[in-house]
Design brief:
Structural class: mainly beta
Number of helices: 0
Oligomer: single chain
Radius of gyration: 12 Å
Largest sheet: 5 strands, antiparallel
Number of domains: 1
Strand content: 35-45%
Shape: globular
Number of strands: 5
Length: 80
C-alpha cells in the first residue's frame, strides 16, 4: 500500500497510474482508487477521492466512513 504524499500539496499526476478519473469540472475532481493507495489521514485503503480547490464545498451523505485532508491549496475527501 503506497500512501498518497500530501506533504507539499497533492499532485494527481504522480498517481495517475492508479487513479481513474470519474468526473472533473472547474476546480474539482472525483477519482476512483484502482491501485490500493492508502489514505494520508488514516493509512487505510480508500475507495474514492474528491479533490477540490474551492473554498466551499457541499456534500451529501457518502453512506460510508470518510477522511478529510487539507493541503495549502486543496481539500481532499477520501471515502472508505
Amino acid at each position: 500500500m503506497e500512501p498518497l504524499d500530501v506533504d507539499d500539496g497533492f499532485d494527481v499526476h504522480e498517481y495517475r497510474h492508479g487513479l481513474k478519473l470519474r468526473k472533473q469540472d472547474r476546480g474539482t475532481m472525483h477519482l476512483e482508487n484502482r491501485d490500493d493507495f492508502a489514505c494520508p489521514a488514516c493509512g487505510e485503503v480508500f475507495e474514492q477521492l474528491f479533490v477540490s480547490e474551492r473554498r466551499e464545498n457541499t456534500f451529501g451523505d457518502p453512506g460510508t466512513s470518510f477522511c478529510v485532508v487539507r493541503t495549502d491549496d486543496q481539500i481532499l475527501l477520501l471515502t472508505h
